[in-house]
Amino acid sequence: MSGITLNRRKIILTAASAAAGLILPPGGMALAHAASTASTTAQGGASGNVGYYRFRVGDIAATVLSDGLIGGPPQIYASNAPEAELEEVLRQAFLPTDRLTLNLNTLLIETNGRKILLEAGAGQTMGPQGGRIFDNLAAIGLRPEDIDVVVVSHTHPDHVGNLRTAGGGRAFPRATVFAPLADWDFFMGSDPDLSYMPVPEDFRRHFAAAIRQSLEPVASGIELYEAGTEIVPGLTTLPALGHTPGMANFLVHSGNDQLLLTADLAYHPIVNVDHAWLPGPDRDKETALASRRRIFDMAAADRLPVLGFHFPFPGIGHMLKTDSGYAWVPANWQF
Ligand SMILES: [Zn+2]
Questions:
Q1: In the record, which residues are listed under signal peptide (predicted)?
Q2: Residue 190 DSSP class
Q3: Less Cβ crowding at N or C end of the chain, within 10 Å?
Q4: pLDDT tens string 7-45
Q5: DSSP string, 166-185
Q6: Is the pLDDT of residue 123 over 70?
Q7: Residue 274 CA, ligand 1 centroid: distance in Å
Q8: Are 129 and 23 in contact (CB under 8 A)?
């Protein structure tokens, strides 16, 4: 009997993660936190490879800080892909066909004496492989209290999860947190309607609760912005609505140098750039598609360096316009 129960549980979890593209543990954050702590080394990964990557955008020092990984059944991230075609595409990319792994590439920028974190990362809200940002901060000699500003593109758990400590406090105690106003209204208002997410009711409840719990410690003093506004000199937000009501993209700029952060316009370049399949968790798929095309066109036309939050680490490359759509061209590693 217990075997049957376990199997059923596994099936439900798989369905839930398939729908949202994320693993949300039914036991809550504490359970996942224990698993993460056990499997994380000082360098943030079992391999011992570093999880940070430094570069510059003009006068601005930039460092990709990995928060680790999330993932789920590939169909989640390519909701309108024919099953056989999706499998073949993944096979040709030498990727597993039963699970797509996504990175969590947060970006630290240092400008005018301020340390600004773009995206907080998932922490333990979406499975045991998240929450590595703190190890990676330590690896470059920084503590959470050194962060002055945190800006999130939208408030899904994998972007806000690290704002809360295990004890319920502010994980970045000195930081002013910026979040999109429309996301705040939608997710923090009374009971968000998540029926667009094709997941069991239980999963939706956990998803909404993870957002509320992550944002609650920073609610006092939070800065709610509308995409299109400048956060600080050198950091502008661009409207990229559709995935959520308020999702923004970020443009980091200094002199003639720019970097575009595309947040969740695409989850994985193989399925959402090289192939134009639609991410399942997009709340308004038409609006999200229009945002994707507008911003990808701009990136291609202006030859902008791009950072994809969920792309293979460190997530930097360029968007190439092709006859049929776009192609992702990863940048060479800089030593
Ligand atoms: Zn995301």
A1: 1-34
A2: S
A3: C
A4: 333 333 333 343 344 445 443 443 333 334 434 444 446
A5: TTSSBSSTTPEEEEEHHHHH
A6: yes
A7: 19
A8: no
**Cα 329 to Cα 311: distance, rounded to the nearest angstrom:** 11
Beta bridge pairs of residue 149: 116, 176
Taking the centre of ligand 1 as the mean of its atom positions, its distance from the CA of residue 158, in whole angstroms, is 5
pLDDT in tens, 217-270: 999 999 999 999 999 999 999 999 999 999 999 999 999 999 999 999 999 999
Q: What is the 3-state secondary structure (H, E, C) of 235-279?
A: EEEEECCCCCCCCEEEEEEECCEEEEECCCCCCCHHHHCCCCCCC
Read off the DSSP letter of residue 227: B
Measured CA to CA, the distance from residue 65 to residue 139 in angstroms comes to 10
CA of 105 to the centre of ligand 1 (A): 10
Residue 8 alpha carbon to ligand 1 centre in Å: 27
Residue 245 contacts residue 182 (beta carbons within 8 Å): yes
Distance 40 CA to ligand 1 centre (A): 21
Quick check: 81 pLDDT over 70? Answer: yes
Q: How far is the CA of 228 from the centre of ligand 1 (A)?
A: 20
Tokens of 106: 């947060």
Phi and psi dihedrals of 209, rounded to 5? -65, -40
Give tens-digit pLDDT for 289-315: 999 999 999 999 999 999 999 999 999
Token duo for residue 140: 């470059």
